[in-house]
Write a structure and sequence with these properties.
The structure holds 2 protein chains of 2 kinds. Chain A contains 9 helices and 21 strands. By secondary structure, chain A is of the alpha+beta class. Classes of the chains: A alpha+beta, B mainly alpha. Chains A and B meet through strand 6, helix 2 and helix 4 of A and helix 8 and helix 9 of B.
């Protein structure tokens, strides 16, 4: 049975519609991340799950129970806010137990629950402090404690890490993931950070303009983005997308791209054999498309994936190199656009000189320039 | 490190510093002079004042004028002193300040955290009440007090002051609560707190500074009010300000200036006291740490 069922949900403010027919079915124990740029409607959707905003159209159910019109406190959910929203007048212990108190839980039980949760989050020494006496990371923990203590059906996180500094954010990210493994709870998590989305989730919903662009596992989203928005939003540095033309060459289909800044054309094999028969690329032979290929699929020949079916070597002029320690990012021109390649740190490349780039064509995706959708 | 201090004042030389103090002292003296004269003259016998020297120190000190102003001076037609009127004022001010502050807090809470259709217009109208001169409402208010049977009573004056105060207190609290993140209310809702629980468990406890501002403002205004007191009060509910006027303008016998001075100071003391006690809490930031920081 679907644990959290969002069916044809829309949200409008007057004439402005901010969410269009959202459909998501979340199973028990799933970690769903809603990711997208500012104003894509992800926080609104989360607030609607929480019951803090009304649903304009559609239905929402948790554990098969219809939630439309049910008060937030009666949904058995808990939420962690971006600003933590700790009650400033209460101590940490009071903050954590406030929800239980409001639900009429006896004092002895409340104390025991606070003890359990504070033990799990290692915040026992802070219990008598006020929020103003805590650091950002400690407040974050208290906010999570306040959610955990309720033992809710669904946890809702609204960009909980965005106020922490970079190092703490990574630590807390791991912590949240550990917590999810330990408790097996169902989580809906909103973020605009695609790395958080990739690392934490079991499934990701990429949102833009009030629509779900793609809903899938992190791997699906990353490897087979449904459209150009998803392709460019997920991944850092983002996917290289540049113009190409589909050509037929013998039994195989390939792309013709321009190399470097000049008019040199090069043919790269894309698919052949059985795969080719299933592909929709037939319909695009001799037509212009957009080719998408991630930086890590463009390497130096020695660094190329040994298991790849098709590796195409391209000689090209290096524009810029950006050593990042673990890797070196190499910028060159393909299809008239700047393209970033990710080479091993010890690859010998120099700006202004030629180099051989190995393109892993297994991992290339093709987009229709008109619809911006991926062509299977 | 010792070299880092919070002191951001401009460093000044010794001469300019001396000048600054000189001017400050001069102005302090200038502003305190009238009050000093009042205190001095309230502490000397009447014939010393009548002999013509108001600035001089008393040759024989006495607290007789104070005692007389408090308990035996002729106020209107009764020789009661100001004491009963002082208590009248307290009976008006304390409930009126409490009620108007609480209502203001409640209104501010609703206006910021529970938006409804037409709320900005309603708030605008409440704000408008701050700009209506007292004189305009005298006659309609007298009608209403007459109809409700509150005319000439302490209750009536409390009612008038509460009505007049709500505009200001609502404005204060609305602006204060506006800065409190809505997420706090959302969190409380999810925690299961109801409309009133959120108000008195979350909002009121963080309202310390603005409550102090409201109390000082309302206390000063209501205590110092003369017009409503003179218009709507009976003999047995007249506030201090009206009694002071009656004391000073009594036409029988000699004008006892020393008693008048003492009475005026007694009338002003409670507002001074409120400033001294509450002013300390004025600037405390109780909101610190509720959200990121």
């Amino acid at each position: 049975m679907t644990f959290l069922d969002i069916k044809d949900v829309s949200k409008s403010y007057g004439k402005v519609t901010v969410l269009h027919d959202i459909n998501i079915a979340v199973d028990e124990g799933e970690f769903l991340v809603l990711v997208g740029p500012s104003g894509c409607g992800k926080s609104t959707l989360l607030n609607m799950i929480a019951g803090l905003e009304e649903i304009t159209a559609g239905s929402m159910a948790i554990k098969g129970r219809e939630m439309n019109g049910v008060h937030p406190s009666k949904r058995n959910i808990a939420m962690v806010f971006q600003s933590y929203a700790l009650y400033p007048n209460m101590t940490v212990a009071e903050n954590i137990s406030f929800g239980l108190e409001m639900h009429g839980v006896p004092k002895a039980e409340r104390l025991a629950a606070v003890r359990d949760v504070s033990g799990m989050l290692q915040i026992e020494p802070l219990l008598e402090r006020k929020p103003s006496q805590l650091s950002g990371g400690q407040r974050q923990r208290v906010a999570m404690g306040r959610a955990l203590v309720r033992n809710p059906d669904v946890f809702l996180f609204d960009e909980p890490l965005s106020n922490l500094d970079a190092k703490l954010r990574v630590d807390m990210r791991t912590e949240i993931k550990k917590l999810h493994h330990k408790l097996g709870s169902t989580i809906v998590y909103v973020t605009h950070d695609q790395i958080e989305a990739m690392t934490l989730s079991t499934r990701i919903a990429v949102m833009n303009g009030g629509h779900i662009q793609q809903l899938g596992t992190p791997k699906e989203i990353y490897d087979n983005p449904a459209n150009m928005f998803v392709a460019s939003f997920m991944g850092s540095p983002s996917m290289n997308i540049f113009p190409a033309t589909i050509r037929e060459k013998g039994s195989a289909l390939g792309v013709e791209i321009s190399v470097g800044l000049g008019a040199d054309k090069k043919h790269l094999k894309l698919i052949d054999g059985g795969k080719r028969a299933k592909s929709e690329l037939h319909n695009f032979i001799n037509k212009d498309v957009l080719l998408g290929i991630r930086p890590e699929a463009i390497t130096d020949p020695d660094g190329a994936d040994r298991n790849a079916q098709i590796i195409e070597l391209v000689e090209n002029v290096v524009d810029v190199t950006e050593p990042a320690g673990s890797d070196t990012y190499v910028v060159s021109h393909l299809g008239g656009q700047e393209v970033v390649a990710r080479m091993r740190a010890d690859a010998v490349v120099k700006p202004g000189e030629g180099a051989v780039f190995a393109l892993n064509m297994d991992r290339a995706v093709v987009f229709d320039p008109k619809t911006e959708q991926r062509i299977d | 490190m010792a070299s880092i201090t919070q002191d951001t004042a401009i460093n000044t030389g010794r001469v300019s510093r001396a000048l600054i103090y000189l001017f400050l002292l001069l102005f302090a003296f200038y502003y305190l002079l009238p009050f000093g004269v009042m205190v001095l003259n309230s502490l000397k016998p009447l014939d010393e004042i009548l002999s013509g020297n108001m600035i001089a120190l008393p040759t024989s000190w006495t607290i007789e004028p104070w005692l007389k102003a408090w308990s035996t001076a002729q106020v209107g037609i009764e020789p009661t002193g100001l004491a009963p009127y002082f208590w009248n004022s307290i009976k008006i001010v304390v409930p009126a300040v409490t009620i108007s502050t609480l209502l203001g807090a409640f209104n501010g809470y609703v206006f910021t955290k529970w938006r409804f259709k037409g709320d900005t217009i309603l708030f605008g109208l409440m704000l408008f009440s701050c700009f209506i001169p007292f004189q305009i409402v005298l006659i309609p208010m007298a009608r209403i007090l007459g109809m409700t049977g509150l005319a000439g009573s302490t209750g009536g004056l409390i009612f008038v002051h509460v009505i007049y105060g709500i505009g200001f207190t609502t404005l204060y609290f609305r602006n204060y609560y506006k800065a409190i993140p809505n997420e706090l209310v959302m969190a409380a809702q999810i925690d299961g707190a109801g409309f009133f629980q959120i108000f008195y468990r979350i909002m009121l406890p963080v309202s310390g500074p603005i409550i102090v501002v409201c109390v000082i403002w309302q206390f000063t205004n209501i205590w110092n009010d003369f017009l409503f007191g003179a218009s709507f009060a009976d003999f047995d509910s007249q506030p201090m300000t009206v009694a002071l006027n009656n004391l000073v303008s009594s036409s029988t016998g000699v004008k006892e200036y020393n008693v008048h001075f003492a009475g005026a100071i007694i009338a002003a003391l409670p507002t001074l006291l409120v400033y001294v006690i509450a002013g300390r809490y004025f600037v405390r930031g109780l909101m610190a740490g509720s959200v990121k920081g």
